[in-house]
Amino acid sequence: RSQRADSPRAWMATVQSPSSSFVLTGNQITCSSATYFCQTLNENSLASNVISLVLDGNLLKHRGLNTLIRDYFVNTGCSKPQGLDLSDNLLERECVQPLARYLASAHCQLETLFLRSNELGAHVATVMPSTRAQGGMLCALDLSDVNMGDNGALAISECISSKTMVLKSLSIERNAVTDT
Fold first, then answer.
1. Region 78-85: what's the mean pLDDT?
2. In angstroms, rounded to a whole number, what is the distance separating the alpha carbons of residues 110 and 139?
3. What is the DSSP string of 119-158?
4. Burial of 148 (0-12, 13-18, 19+ CB in 10 A)
5. By the 8 A CB rule, do 175 and 147 touch?
6. pLDDT, tens only, 123-139
7. Cα torsion angle, 73, 78, 80, 83, sign
8. Mean pLDDT across the chain, nearest whole number?
9. SS3 100
10. Fewer CB atoms < 10 Å away: N or C end of the chain?
11. Can you give the C-alpha Rg of the chain in angstroms?
12. pLDDT at 85
């Protein structure tokens, strides 16, 4: 018998062991099911020690992202993942500020953040300075295919050259950045 994608058993089946990755891809979490998803994560002993949360290809959108930040990353006693993949989640420009606030907060323990293939635009560069403002640990950032254009690339360049942020890995491919 197959399990519904929105059931706790189906979600938890993807957690292989404590201190591992939790992978849930392919349109299983929507903005309306994000609260239930966070509740399930918070109640499951395996999920409470997840090191990497891979949620690419879902439908979180702005509302789901805010729920995830509030109900899983900030307002719980669970250990916080060091890796977060939110690629291809229909995230748009209004998602940048909640991400920036979280990355600058004392709650954030992220070392890797993948945001590729979302419609974040040039404002995605505002995430960068905030990651170091509170002693953030972010070392790898994937901003590929977020439509940042020249303005976003310039802002990222300024952050890096001013040493506001030190990254080991930064991906900005497929962003319509010109040579000028």
1. 80
2. 8
3. B--GGGGGHHHHHHHT-----EEE-TTS--HHHHHHHHHH
4. buried
5. yes
6. 887 776 555 444 457 88
7. negative
8. 79
9. helix
10. N
11. 16
12. 94
Query: With contact defined as beta carbons under 8 Å apart, do 33 and 6 qualify?
Result: yes
111 near 137, Cβ under 8 Å?
yes
The two three-digit tokens of residue 61, written as one number: 């959108």
Indicate the SS3 state at residue 22: strand
pLDDT at 81: 82
Structure tokens at 28: 């299983």
> For residue 69, what are its two tokens?
């930040």
Residue 135 has φ and ψ, to the nearest 5°, of 75, 30
CB crowding 20-57: b at 16 or more within 10 Å, else e? ebbebeeebbbbebbebbbebbeebebbebbbbbbbbb
| Rounded CA separation 163/180 (Å) | 23
Instruction: Enter the tokens of residue 133.
Output: 């403002």
| pLDDT at residue 4, rounded to an integer | 39
Q: How far is CA 149 from CA 113, 171, 177, in A?
A: 20, 14, 5
Q: Would you give the distance in Å from CA 13 to the centre of its chain?
A: 21
Q: Per this entry, what is the length of the chain?
A: 180
9 vs 12: CA distance, rounded Å? 5
How far apart, in whole angstroms, are the C-alpha atoms of residue 158 and residue 129?
A: 10
Q: What is the mean pLDDT of residues 139-154?
A: 90
